[in-house]
């Protein structure tokens, strides 16, 4: 279903509240007038002057609207041309010759003066030549006339005899043809005078009536083009305007007519208007200016301007011109619920800058047709709500404070079961970026940054980006962000349960109370055994205090809460006696004692007498029921339904609006709910001498709190980072081998439920200890391995408190590019880095770290120790061969074929959890000796190392190519050697090479000779220059020679 217009206004645009300043569509035209010419002794003054005006009608909105923010008297302050107001606050003008006329969009408004027609201007800008007339066809048979605008770029003639510059005359004519008939001349005129600037004039051409197909308009230049440097006479058809004569009222459309002196602008300026939007229906007891509600609302309406989002929602959904009124009449809207939402929107809250503002306002400009559901939900989002269809009504609900309308406990849900779910951690946002429109900056979009510092400390940065629909207040945008962050972090629990007829008392958006005795840790709800208006009897053993809150679902379906005044339990059996206790006779805190039945009195009678089996719930300062907001009610078989709801935290609203402290009521008494911290944290120290070395110890102690089972301890020295110690069950920990400095520690207690207390922090205490950081490693060396590098480092001698060695490596010799290689516990002093490509090189550094986390100096301090994976081909091939021999695939490939014949062929496949292999083997036995050839393909998992390989077993392996008609062998392996006829290698590492002929460079000089050439047979090395002169240098065993470009020997060193 789409929002649409039944009786559509010209543009379909409409807006509510105070409209952001934006440019609108142009539907106007411009015109001008001309004057006479003159002459002078040497150069005649310009006699043709053009004054052009832009006349524009802008359609602002569906009517009726309030109009300019400063009223019609100050309307020039609310009109912006190219972003600048026409008038300032003091009345001074930024533009001259600007006239404006508003129509607010009533049914019977007058036409705009100065706009007697509806016009459409079409730019042409075509030069008009005597040899080529300009012609245009008009097929709109509603046209009354066309306006042709002609222009000259300049008009003058120079007298070649004396140099005087005078005026000139260019004649032209305009013809009209109807329905393709003969042209009739309707105008003959001329540009006659002198001008050095562009001059334009317009002619209205009335079109003859009775056209069936349309009209053709032709413009002819009668004066031949001069085509001379002494005459300026270029003429142009500048524009043509289609005109329909009519004084239009634009009923129910807010429009503004504006006339602008075009000399102040290069083109028609953009327009923007600061307006108050539609006048809509509001409650009859509501004052939109003061946002006050007088008395009780009787359900009737009046019309007024307002930016209250609930009223905007009511108008848009119920309007039959541009809303959903045809499908959803106003009588189908829940006007009473919207009335309560509207009052909540109008309450004043802090704006964040020392002032007050309404909680929610809606200033939105709707210009296009959109999906109805999306627009309605976007509007509802302004007041933190949603809309849905139920019981033949459109119902809007908002996330705002409210009392639970019904109570559910294990006594009135199916099987007494509540199922809970928690929100994902990635939906618990800690930073919100809220986009809003700033009316003080032409309605441009701004972004408000909102953060939850407690959430950031717990979850890190989890960013949410949202657009606040219809929001033009920074304070409101900030509250939107705070609400989103609090909601995602506090309302993390969802609940589902099944009920019978109790579903009839709620609907989506309702707040409910859930008394789940399993989560609470004790029974807090059930059904009434008998009752009066001020007393109920329940079959439960409860401990009740005066002031506790008793909630009952009454027979009418209402849920009412009353304060407990007294309670009495009976019968109670002690020492074989039966006693009855009255709460007025007890002096300790419990006034109701366990028994088989409890008589509970309330301070104020219920509005109706509860009936037996009505559901009750008991709450206190120590234990409260949970509150949830209903999301959905899904019907099942018969009268059953599944209810889904989300956690509701009523304290968040005052926190969002006023920054008040957020206290969450306890919902469980499973001990303990809060863990007390340790007390009296204190620091001391001592030292012992071992092997001539003094070892200093720090001692951290504290006094334990109740029910703590373990402690977490952190310490630091001289304001460094906190160092975590292992959890402990004692109240004293020691840190050995400390350095001298100022120490502090903190400790928190943990209980059996894993609940942690707040930190208890000691005072800063100066302790004696080691005076310096750990020493450097004594050496660091590398050894090349096949596909790896081994590192060995030296540790300093003597007693020490070294904890580990940190190694770093880099592809460059600079430590600035290094990354950690790993930590190696003391006294390990070697490490092998495997899995490298052959010939790969690194640079390495090392440093020591002591048991206190203090790091020593980097070794070496400059360029790192160089290490390189071996490039020795023999070593690498032996290493690979050894690995191949260990694989199952090799062993399967080398197994002899069990055959009685002299020849055999075997194809085998093996799959298991650790290997997949396929082999093809051929075998021939000659003189009792088997000869084999085979191919093996396999993948194996050897202790977590997966290897895939293809193995060939044969005395000769060759690649054959017969594409040229003869047999060629480009690649052969035989006798432990590889023969390659020709190869292209991107990069090669060669241990040693034996070259039989010539080694030359790929690059050549302009003569086509290689830049570098080494003849292995003659022993001559040649250097041929890269420039085009052809010079070269040769070196042999006798010496060196240099040749000029012409081949003449230029220099010689040595003999020969």
UniProtKB/TrEMBL annotation:
Span of domain Fibronectin type-III: 677-770, 773-870
Protein name: Host specificity protein J
Taxonomic lineage of the native organism: Bacteria, Pseudomonadati, Pseudomonadota, Betaproteobacteria, Burkholderiales
Cited InterPro entries: FN3_dom, FN3_sf, GpJ_CSF, GpJ_HDII-ins2, Ig-like_fold, J_dom, Viral_Tip_Attach_Protein
Taxonomic source organism: Achromobacter ruhlandii
Pfam families linked: fn3, FNIII-A_GpJ, Phage-tail_3, Phage_Tail_Tip
SUPFAM superfamilies: Fibronectin type III (SSF49265)
């Amino acid at each position: 279903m789409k929002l649409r217009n039944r009786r559509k206004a010209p543009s379909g645009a409409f807006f509510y509240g105070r409209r952001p300043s934006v440019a609108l569509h142009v539907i106007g035209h411009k015109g001008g007038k001309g004057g006479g010419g003159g002459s002078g002794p040497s150069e005649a003054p310009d006699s043709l002057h053009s004054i052009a005006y832009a006349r524009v009608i802008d359609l602002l909105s569906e009517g009726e609207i309030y109009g300019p923010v400063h009223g019609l008297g100050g309307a020039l302050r609310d009109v912006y041309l190219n972003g600048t107001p026409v008038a300032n606050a003091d009345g001074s003008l930024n533009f001259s010759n600007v006239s404006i006329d508003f129509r607010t969009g009533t049914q019977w408004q007058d036409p705009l003066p100065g706009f007697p027609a509806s016009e459409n201007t079409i730019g042409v800008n075509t030069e008009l030549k005597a040899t080529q007339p300009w012609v245009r066809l008009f097929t709109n048979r509603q046209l009354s006339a066309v306006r042709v605008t002609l222009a000259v770029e300049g008009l003058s003639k120079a007298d070649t005899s004396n140099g005087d510059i005078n005026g000139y005359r260019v004649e032209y004519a305009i013809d009209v043809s109807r329905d393709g008939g003969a042209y009739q001349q309707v105008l003959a005129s001329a540009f006659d005078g002198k001008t050095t600037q562009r001059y334009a004039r317009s002619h209205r051409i009335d079109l003859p009536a009775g056209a069936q197909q349309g009209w053709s308009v032709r413009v002819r230049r009668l004066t031949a083009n001069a085509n001379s440097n002494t005459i300026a006479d270029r003429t142009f058809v500048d524009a043509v305007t289609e005109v329909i004569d009519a004084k239009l009222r634009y009923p129910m459309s807010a429009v503004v007519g504006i006339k602008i002196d075009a000399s102040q602008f290069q083109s028609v300026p953009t327009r923007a208007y600061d307006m108050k939007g539609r006048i809509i229906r509001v409650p009859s007891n509501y004052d939109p200016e003061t946002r006050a509600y007088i008395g009780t609302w009787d359900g009737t309406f009046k019309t007024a301007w307002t930016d209250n989002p609930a009223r905007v929602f009511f108008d848009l959904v119920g309007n039959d011109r541009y809303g959903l009124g045809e499908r959803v009449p106003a009588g189908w809207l829940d006007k009473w619920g919207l009335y309560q939402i509207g009052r909540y929107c109008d309450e004043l809250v802090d704006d964040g800058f020392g002032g007050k503002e309404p909680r929610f306002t809606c200033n939105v400009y709707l210009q296009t047709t959109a999906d109805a559901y999306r627009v309605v939900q976007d509007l509802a989002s302004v007041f933190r709500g949603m809309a849905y269809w139920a019981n033949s009504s459109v119902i809007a609900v908002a996330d705002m404070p409210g009392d639970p309308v019904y109570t559910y406990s294990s006594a009135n849900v199916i099987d007494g079961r509540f199922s809970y779910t928690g929100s994902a951690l990635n939906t618990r946002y800690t930073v919100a970026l809220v986009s809003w429109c700033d009316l003080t900056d032409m309605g441009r979009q701004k972004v408000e940054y909102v953060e939850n510092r407690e959430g950031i400390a717990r979850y890190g940065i989890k960013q949410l980006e949202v657009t606040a629909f219809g929001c033009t207040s920074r304070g409101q945008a900030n509250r939107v962000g705070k609400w989103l962050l609090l909601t995602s972090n506090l309302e993390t629990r969802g609940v589902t349960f099944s009920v019978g007829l109790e579903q009839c008392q709620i609907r989506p958006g309702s707040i409910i109370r859930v008394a789940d005795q399993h989560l609470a840790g004790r029974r807090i709800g059930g059904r009434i055994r008998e009752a009066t208006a001020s007393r109920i009897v329940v079959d439960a053993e409860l401990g009740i205090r005066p002031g506790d809150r008793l909630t009952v679902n009454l027979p009418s379906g209402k849920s009412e809460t009353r304060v407990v005044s007294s309670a009495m339990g009976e019968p109670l059996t002690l020492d074989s006696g039966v006693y009855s206790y009255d709460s007025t006779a007890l002096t300790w805190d419990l006034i109701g004692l366990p028994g088989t039945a409890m008589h509970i009195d309330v301070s104020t009678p219920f509005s109706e007498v509860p009936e037996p089996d009505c559901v009750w719930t008991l709450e206190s300062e120590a234990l409260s029921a949970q509150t949830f907001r209903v999301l959905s009610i899904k019907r099942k078989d018969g009268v059953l339904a599944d209810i889904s709801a989300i956690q509701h935290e009523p304290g968040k609203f005052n926190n969002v609006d006023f920054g008040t402290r957020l206290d969450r009521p306890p919902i469980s008494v499973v001990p303990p709910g809060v863990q007390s911290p340790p007390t009296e944290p204190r620091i001391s120290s001592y030292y012992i001498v071992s092997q001539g070395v003094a070892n200093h110890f720090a001692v951290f102690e504290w006094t334990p709190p109740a029910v703590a089972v373990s402690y977490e301890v952190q310490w630091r020295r001289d304001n460094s980072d906190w160092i975590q110690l292992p959890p402990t069950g004692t109240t004293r920990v020691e840190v050995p081998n400390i350095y001298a400095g100022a120490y502090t520690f903190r400790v928190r207690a943990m209980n059996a439920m894993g609940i942690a207390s707040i930190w208890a922090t000691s005072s800063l205490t100066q302790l004696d200890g080691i005076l310096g950081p750990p020493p450097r490693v004594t050496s660091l060396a590398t050894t090349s391995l096949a596909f790896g590098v081994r590192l060995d480092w030296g540790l300093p001698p003597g007693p020490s408190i070294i904890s580990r060695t940190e190694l770093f490596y880099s592809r460059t010799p600079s430590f600035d590019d290094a990354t950690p290689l790993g930590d190696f516990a003391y006294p390990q002093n070697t490490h092998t880095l495997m899995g490298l490509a052959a010939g790969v090189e690194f640079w390495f550094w090392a440093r020591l770290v002591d048991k206190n986390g203090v790091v020593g100096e980097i070794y070496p301090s400059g360029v790192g120790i160089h290490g390189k994976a071996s490039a020795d081909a023999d070593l690498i091939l032996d290493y690979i061969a050894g690995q191949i021999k260990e694989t199952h695939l090799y062993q399967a490939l080398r197994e002899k074929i069990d055959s009685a014949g002299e020849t055999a062929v075997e194809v085998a496949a093996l799959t298991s959890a650790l290997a997949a292999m396929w082999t093809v083997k051929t075998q021939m036995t000659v003189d009792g000796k088997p000869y084999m050839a085979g191919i093996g393909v396999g993948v194996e998992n050897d202790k977590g190392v997966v290897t895939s390989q293809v193995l060939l077993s044969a005395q000769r392996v060759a690649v054959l190519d017969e594409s040229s008609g003869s047999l060629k062998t480009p690649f052969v392996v035989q006798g432990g050697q590889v023969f390659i006829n020709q190869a292209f290698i991107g990069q090669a590492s060669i241990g040693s090479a034996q070259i039989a002929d010539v080694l030359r460079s790929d690059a050549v000089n302009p003569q086509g000779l290689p830049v570098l050439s080494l003849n292995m047979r003659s022993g001559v090395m040649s250097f041929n220059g890269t420039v085009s002169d052809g010079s070269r240098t040769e070196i042999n065993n006798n010496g060196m020679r240099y040749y000029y470009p012409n081949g003449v020997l230029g220099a010689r060193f040595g003999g020969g």
